[in-house]
Amino acid sequence: MFEPWRRLPALSLKQIQYFVTLAKLRHFTDTAHRLAISQPALSSALRQTESVLGGRLVNRTASAVTLTELGAAILPHAERLLNVAQATFDDMQKIMQDGGDGTLRIGLVPSVGSLLFPAAPQLLAQHFPRLQVEYHDQTNDALLMQLQNGQIDFGIGALDRSVPATLEVYPLREDPFVVVMRRDDPLAESHHLPWRQLIGRDIALFSKGNVSRLVTALAETQRLNVTARYQVDFLETLYGLVRSKLAIAILPQLYTTHLHDDELTVIHLQQPLLSRSVALMRAKQGIRSPLIEACFQLFLQNFQGQNRDG
Predict the structure, then answer these.
(1) Is residue 3 one of the residues assigned to a domain?
(2) H helix or E strand, kind and range, residue 278
(3) If residue 151 lies in a helix (H) or strand (E), which one and from where to where?
(4) pLDDT at 309
(5) How many domains does the chain have?
(6) How far apart are CA 201 and CA 242, in angstroms?
(7) Locate the HTH lysR-type domain: which residues (predicted)?
(8) What domain range is 21 assigned to?
(9) With the CA atoms of 227, 231, 236 and 242 taken in that order, what torsion angle do they form, in degrees rounded to the nearest 10?
(10) 200-221 pLDDT, tens per residue?
(11) From CA 219, how far away is CA 276, in angstroms rounded?
(12) Domain end among 66, 85, 104
């Protein structure tokens, strides 16, 4: 916990920014140009940062800049510090200029939109009417990264082995996998389908996120010859392949919440059952205001309660 009377290290946010930018660009000239400073000033700032932290952060040669082991370990913490500082500064400016209580930044994977909307905005407006709320939708991998580096306050995504130990996770519900196919498909009359009945079929999956990883892992462990003929980025492309009789689609059920198409049907997959856990997540060591903490607890109580009731 931060103690206002505790003496802080003699480092500025600008010096941290210089290190992070150099770590990204891996070139002193490009970094100095991007930051609009001289190369000697950049080198001096880096030396001071290394002196305060007690170790070398980069290796510099005539052709390249690489991070030392210490530099690679420090980089995520430096990025988080900058993101939190920028968000905090933005909030202070908005409060000074427009009033209000600052900004809450919520991340989500697109499929959980049916869980959040319209309930979440109404819930927050009721309890925190002066709070500005931003919603950032992205893939699950990007969500995890933004949680770690402090770009968002908390998020709702899916759990798998890629979730780092640096995050707190609070499961909300299970989201079973289904297959979407045309109603005139020979298998469409079933209410549940064993995975083995999909062997030999052309299958469409999302190319990003953890859906493809979960399906691939299941196929390997069950020794199923189920492979993706098509890998796409967007939901409508997935459905378009199905409508065109080019493939059947495998995806978690939440994606199909708003699917209302007379040509398509949704069937649960079984033998074995496959589902993903949808969870509320945040960084374990986040710098949180009492207001952000209250918002998080409101989400946790409301959406975990809905899962128990449902």
Answers:
(1) no
(2) strand 275-283
(3) none
(4) 44
(5) 3
(6) 12
(7) 11-68
(8) 13-85
(9) -30
(10) 999 999 988 788 889 989 999 9
(11) 15
(12) 85
